[in-house]
Amino acid sequence: MPAKSSTARGSSAKSRPAYKCAECGWTTAKWVGRCGECQAWGTVEEVGAVTVRTTTAAPVREPARPIAEVDVEAARATPTGVDEFDRVLGGGLVPGAVVLMAGEPGVGKSTLLLDAASRAAATGRTVLYVTAEESAAQVRLRAERIGALRPRLLLTSETDLATVLGHVEHSNPDLLVVDSVQTIASGEVDGAAGGVSQVREVAGALIGVAKRRALATLLVGHVTKDGSIAGPRTLEHLVDVVCQFEGERHSRLRLLRAVKNRYGPTDEVGCFELGEDGIVGLPDPSGLFVSGTPEPVAGTCVTVTLEGRRPLLAELQSLVSTDTTPGNARRVTSGLESSRMAMVLAVVQRRLGVALGNRDTFVATVGGVKLTEPSVDLAVALAVASAAKDRPIAAGTIALGEVGLAGEVRRVTGVPRRLSEAARLGFTTAIVPKGSLGDGAAPAGLRVHEVETLLDACVAARLVAS
User: Fold this and answer.
1) 308 is in an annotated binding site
2) Architecture of the 74-283 domain
3) 384 among the known binding-site residues?
4) How far apart are CA 417 and CA 309, in angstroms?
5) What is the C-alpha to C-alpha distance for residues 78 and 90, in angstroms, rounded to an integer?
6) 368 has binding-site annotation
7) What architecture is domain 288-460?
8) Is 104 marked as a binding-site residue?
9) Is 251 annotated as a binding residue?
10) What span, in angstroms and rounded, lies between the C-alpha atoms of 249 and 163?
């Protein structure tokens, strides 16, 4: 059999299809279900031969102007009527802005957007709500339950992209809500709804319409098991604002954070309470995380944490068993990082001489709030020491600061803002790291103890004699 010529082999290699990952650009000669570079599933697609195209200059429709002469009125935000939502967005919705709302199933994304759409329709604006996951009757029942029935709130149940764009042309809305971008498909693209190509096509078409018509658009997005937004990574780059809606199923508290925001800050947090009558903003949620017991109880300590720029009071509770347990004692935590708690317990045992090695220790937060800031270390240490000594901390006391392995108390950010919140809520004593106040004065009615070590903090909390 004659051997194939090198020309034949070269043409065969050129005609062989190539595959590329839509997330990171990794290429391979054959299709695989998982990218070998970024380990993402379902992102490897076939690509054609690369052709070089030359783009000629096109006539300019509008000449460039000095930046000081650009009209800024087109970028003014219009409030949605949901104060906590507006706080995160930076004042409201900008015409032509595209907002992607992501979160786990059942967290309340659709309820929040339906409430925002209803409030916008109540001001006289036309709102088009496109539901691709539920029937129109299901959404209508939810709207009736939360009091969101408005004459100018238009509702349609569609899963075809062309039909959705037709509804936009016909109704000419001022606000568009799409629930969700992963359940709408385009007939011009192969693949099922939710695939990488479909999500990219649907998002690109909706964003194009929003920019051309100066139409504010709210998109609902699904998340994967690890909490990241499903679909191609380019989806987050294309939209203007990416919001993450968080919350535990057993808790009514919901937190809204801006991961990306072209029109405002990304360090604001919106607090909501999800109930039977819908979702309600919480302008002052600190009371949810404090037990409010009339008398001080051993093993409890209050701290002030920062969620974005918002200070929130949170209570930590600890329980240390009185009986020693042979072998390894249990360490159970709820609302705190277990590794961080284990480190603080080791410091308490070594630097304060509190025997915890053979005693079960439990530490939890009130209200199901999750605390990840290092500033809660001091409150954890004081709560554990209080429980171990069975001596309560003085009423009206808060503690904040990072605890080092040497037993020192380190400074944290935003101390004046935290102290102002504590003073507003009636606390009278604060234990903070040394140098936290600087040249500033303490808030009126609040006595501040600046401490250098964990032992000094225990003296200030009256857990040990001075």
Assistant:
1) no
2) 3-Layer(aba) Sandwich (3.40)
3) no
4) 9
5) 10
6) no
7) 2-Layer Sandwich (3.30)
8) yes
9) no
10) 35
